Amino acid sequence: MLNSPILSLSNHTPIIYHHTPPTKFQSLPSCSYGRPEFSSGSCSNAFRRKGVVVKVKGMMKLEEEVVESGKRGDFGEGFDAIVIGSGIGGLVAGTQLAVKGAKVLVLEKYVIPGGSSGFYHREGYTFDVGSSVMFGFSDKGNLNLITQALEAVGCRMQVIPDPTTVHFHLPNHLSVRVHREYDKFIEELTSYFPHEKDGILKFYGECWKIFNALNSLELKSLEEPLYLFGQFFQKPLECLTLAYYLPQNAGAIARKYIQDPQLLSFIDAECFIVSTVNALQTPMINASMVLCDRHFGGINYPLGGVGGIAKSLAKGLVDQGSQILYKANVTSIITEQGKAVGVRLSDGREFFAKTIISNATRWDTFGKLVKGESLPKEEENFQKVYVKAPSFLSIHMGVKAEVLPPDTDCHHFVLENNWTSLEEPYGSIFLSIPTILDSSLAPEGRHILHIFTTSSMDDWQGLSRIDYEAKKQVVADEIISRLEKKLFPGLRSSIDFIEVGTPKTHRRYLARDEGTYGPMPRSIPKGLLGMPFNTTSIDGLYCVGDSCFPGQGVIAVAFSGVMCAHRVAADIGLEKKSPVLDGMLLGLLGWLRTLA
Ligand SMILES: NC(=O)c1ccc[n+]([C@@H]2O[C@H](COP(=O)([O-])OP(=O)(O)OC[C@H]3O[C@@H](n4cnc5c(N)ncnc54)[C@H](O)[C@@H]3O)[C@@H](O)[C@H]2O)c1
Ligand SMILES: CC(C)=CCC/C(C)=C/C=C/C(C)=C/C=C/C(C)=C/C=C/C=C(C)/C=C/C=C(C)/C=C/C=C(\C)CCC=C(C)C
User: Fold this and answer.
1) How far is the CA of 549 from the centre of ligand 1 (A)?
2) For residues 414 and 483, is the Cβ–Cβ distance under 8 A?
3) For residue 334, what are the β-bridge partners?
4) Helix (H) or strand (E) holding 67
5) Successive 10-residue mean pLDDT values, the chain, 596 residues
6) Can you tell me the distance from the alpha carbon of 98 to that of 105, in angstroms, rounded to the nearest whole number?
């Protein structure tokens, strides 16, 4: 419908769009380190290296110093690792290595860290670029990977507990709040499906079984045999449980217990918001992780905005004696005799290191950065099983506070009439209102509405500048009308500020091929079996981020960062390793992936 040229704005009060800058990320937010709003977290300025506590200077090392020291031979033996990109995946890999004593250089194309988990300021508003729903940010258990990543570099952020993970507004007046308290959520869901009470308890109960197994493990690289076999030895039941569920998907398990098609569609929506695909295509381990963590540790929002996480990690990295360089656009990975040894930037500079870690997507890494090599077999297999998920259309708005009814929840998912529209472009609407939790993000009397919906690059190609801007306006207007009708009457006239980003915006500012949200299976996958880990077929080159195991999600890429750092540390001699067992395990994992 949104592609239809007959969709008109005529019956709406026109919205004033801000055209300077024309797209949301275009006028760059200044890097605001040291501003009062960033004091929400605290980081220790001391680090321990070789048993000595060392004081380091301020976080922003001079760029020239990095440029000089990064050249081959100028930095002692060079860097231990270069990380391409400072998304959460790259930053976690970098900081974890830095605390193990590695010299790391992070190269970021943009002017601030965070990638999809970045932020920007406009007219008194602090907007999160991507998701505002933070899993893994509690102070409980082993799966609070964001908390742990920050703690590793001496940082702690103040968080605000979210009482409701998401409020679903679904077809047939199904309105379900996912309460922080598990029993309250089950009670609410069961009130709609009393005949399926047993099935509901069994399905979510199976999720808890997996979550508890995950939560009992120390999480490190599944590609490192000494660790993996050690875990099997210490926690055999838990590891066997995870191995059993590794090739399974949530939808198939839900169907063992639940018959009601509407309830199965609800479970599809539960999975869709974290995987962009339905339950039949969502790995059971990933579904269990998110469907339980929201009740176990709860969803917690960082005071001052999601951008604070990346800023704290970047500061922590520098505090550990490693470095981050902004406006550093890597255009190629330099290989010598088949081994990755360095990178070249768009301005011609070259940096060298023992290992190269790419936080760019695998499509970008192997399609653009690795030159002159045919696509390795492993990557070919990955691309056979996974395709780029569509991108997003996002609307960042500031609105008058009175338009929101009292007790409005922070996160909403809206699919009005038809379950079949769930996965269609513009079919369902995600909405976050982070100012419900943290009013400091907006001027007084205002709220932030961050609205997004799936949209693919094809829809935005080949338009003139004028047509592109006009189309943004039409599409955004339609989404706002839908929200006005479903949730907030008077929304349009309450708008104080609005910026619209398209897949092109995401591609440009996040450097993700076609602005993709991440990988999604082409058909029904074998759970997580086909998802590659961090090593690649190029010696010395590793990948990290959402096109690695376990996939999309801030907590998921944080885990990928932890795994990557462990594997790299073993390979550069900072952790124990066994070359014989390595060969066997990597061979076995490679073979398992071919079964997917
Ligand atoms: N709307 C949303 O909610 C939303 C959107 C997208 C992603 N996300 C989340 O974030 C996760 C992605 O995190 P991630 O760690 O994989 O990566 P990321 O995409 O967030 O970050 C990658 C970083 O690498 C940089 N980069 C890419 N290519 C580069 C190059 N050639 N040279 C220098 N820098 C380069 C980018 O500028 C970016 O900062 C997703 O899985 C998802 O959960 C959320
Ligand atoms: C190796 C072999 C063969 C075997 C062995 C066995 C074992 C031991 C295994 C193990 C395993 C493991 C450890 C695993 C792990 C995993 C994990 C950690 C996972 C995780 C995951 C996560 C995820 C997926 C997440 C996601 C999230 C997301 C995406 C989010 C998003 C959000 C959004 C978008 C928002 C929404 C909004 C609204 C509604 C507004």
Assistant:
1) 15
2) yes
3) 342
4) helix 63-70
5) 29 34 29 30 41 29 36 59 98 98 97 96 96 94 97 96 98 97 98 98 98 97 97 97 98 98 98 95 98 98 97 97 97 96 97 98 96 88 93 97 96 96 96 98 98 95 96 97 97 97 93 91 95 97 97 97 98 96 95 91
6) 10
Handedness of CA 402, 408, 409, 413 (dihedral sign): negative
Pocket of ligand 2 from Cβ distances under 6 Å: 131, 133, 135, 166, 214, 217, 219, 222, 231, 239, 242-243, 246, 273-274, 285-286, 289-290, 411, 413, 430-432, 550-553, 555-556, 559, 592
**Alpha carbons 483 and 421: distance in angstroms, whole number:** 16
Nearest ligand for residue 590 CA = 2
Domains, in order of start, for the chain = 57-158+303-384+529-594 (3.50.50.60), 163-298 (no CATH), 390-515 (no CATH)
Q: Which two tokens mark 9?
A: 């704005």
Q: How far is the CA of 340 from the centre of ligand 2 (A)?
A: 29
For residue 581, what are its two tokens? Answer: 């067992």
How remote is the CA of residue 373 from the centroid of ligand 2, in Å? 31
Cβ-count burial 404-434 (b if 16+ within 10 Å, e if not)? beeeebbbbbbbeeebeebbebbbbbbbbbb
- Residues ≥6 apart with Cβ < 8 Å to 481: 12, 492
99 φ/ψ angles, rounded to the nearest 5 degrees: -70, -20
Tokens 């995987």 sit at which residue? 275
Ligand located closest to 332 CA: 1
455 neighbors 395 (Cβ within 8 angstroms)? no
Structure tokens at 58: 């301020």
How far apart CA 153 and CA 138 sit, in angstroms, is 17
Q: What is the dihedral of CA 472, 477, 479, 485, to 10 degrees?
A: 180
Nearest bound ligand to the CA of residue 369: 1
Which residue lies with its CA nearest to atom 44 of ligand 1?
130
Which atom, in ligand 2's list, is nearest to the CA of 452?
40
Q: Please say whether the beta carbons of 350 and 536 come within 8 A.
A: no
Nearest atom of ligand 2 to the alpha carbon of 552:
29
Please give the structure tokens belonging to residue 535: 């090593």
Cβ burial 562-572 (10 Å sphere, 16+ → b, else e): bbbbbbbbbbb
To which H or E segment does residue 207 belong?
helix 197-216
Which residue owns the Cα nearest ligand 2 atom 11?
242
Closest C-alpha residue for ligand 2 atom 27: 553
Alpha-carbon distance 553 to 289, whole Å?
A: 11
Atom number, ligand 1, closest to the C-alpha of residue 561: 15
The model's pTM is 0.89
CB 231 within 8 A of CB 217: yes
Supply φ then ψ for residue 529, to 5 degrees: -60, -35
Is residue 128 in contact with ligand 1, taking CB distance under 6 Å? no
Output the CA 29–ligand 2 centroid distance in Å: 31
